[in-house]
Amino acid sequence: MPTVLITGATSGIGKAAVEAFADSGWHVVATGRRADRLEALRSDNVHTLAFDIRDDAARDAAIDSLEGPFAEIDLLINNAGLALGLEPAQKASLANWRTMIDTNVTALVAITHTLLPGIVARKGAIINLSSVAATYPYPGGNVYAGTKAFVRQFSLDLRADLHGTGVRVTSIEPGMVETEFTLVRTGSQDASDKLYGGVNPMTSEDIADTLLWVATLPPHLNINTLELMPTNQSWQAFAVHREG
Question: Which residues pair with residue 4 across a beta bridge?
Answer without folding.
Answer: 28, 75
